[in-house]
Specification:
- This protein is α+β, with helices and mostly antiparallel strands and about 180 residues long.
- Helices cover about 30% and strands about 30% of the residues.
- The chain is globular and about 45 Å long.
- The chain starts with about 25 loop residues before the first helix and ends with a helix.
- The structure holds zinc ion (ZN).
- Zinc ion binds next to helix 2.
């Protein structure tokens, strides 16, 4: 397993619509394992393939706490089939928008259909943090970021900050 480089805002790849995978083969499993390793290394609780630059509909999630056994969840071609009308608010962050956190309101529960690491069809009913995490990651597959769910004022502020940071890093590399 390899820790891959993370794609960071304002990289335009984060706005890509990702393609479904045709089959869960060894190549896909290898990528899922690399994604998991990258997520644990960061550390984070969820990661979509586009965050390591691969525009495929693949997600890994693990909500286990540090002292608990790992509980990795592999979602291939995930599709949210139902969301509750009831909402909840969580403070979200994103490995592609490091060290920025903001409260986001989303449906409190959802149902997601996907293929697992073995290619078997699964459906999972989610609530709490898992429901938020699944929605955040499926958003990534459609080029949507959590900052799209906050006020325009806050979004513009964080986008500007990261654009400036990227320019500064670019100058440093060039220099
Ligand atoms: Zn994210």
């Amino acid at each position: 397993m390899t820790v891959r480089d993370l794609v960071i805002l304002p990289d335009p790849r984060l706005r890509a619509t990702c393609e479904p995978v045709e089959a869960v083969d060894d190549e896909v499993r290898c990528l899922l394992d690399d994604m998991l390793e990258t997520m644990y290394d960061a550390p984070g609780i969820g990661l979509a393939a586009i965050q390591v630059g691969i525009p495929k509909r693949l997600v890994v999630i693990d909500l286990a706490k540090e002292e608990e056994e790992p509980r990795p969840l592999f979602l291939v071609n995930p599709e949210i089939t139902w969301t509750s009308e009831e909402t909840s608010v969580y403070e979200e962050g994103c490995l592609s928008i490091p060290e920025y956190y903001e409260e986001v309101e989303r449906p409190a529960r959802c149902r997601v259909r996907f293929l697992d690491r073995e290619g078997r069809e699964q459906e999972l009913e989610c609530d709490g943090l898992l429901a938020t995490c699944v929605q955040h990651e499926v958003d990534h597959l459609n080029g949507v970021l959590f900052i799209d769910h906050i006020s325009k004022l806050k979004r513009d502020r964080v986008t500007k900050k990261f654009a400036k940071q990227a320019r500064r890093d670019g100058t440093r590399l060039a220099g």
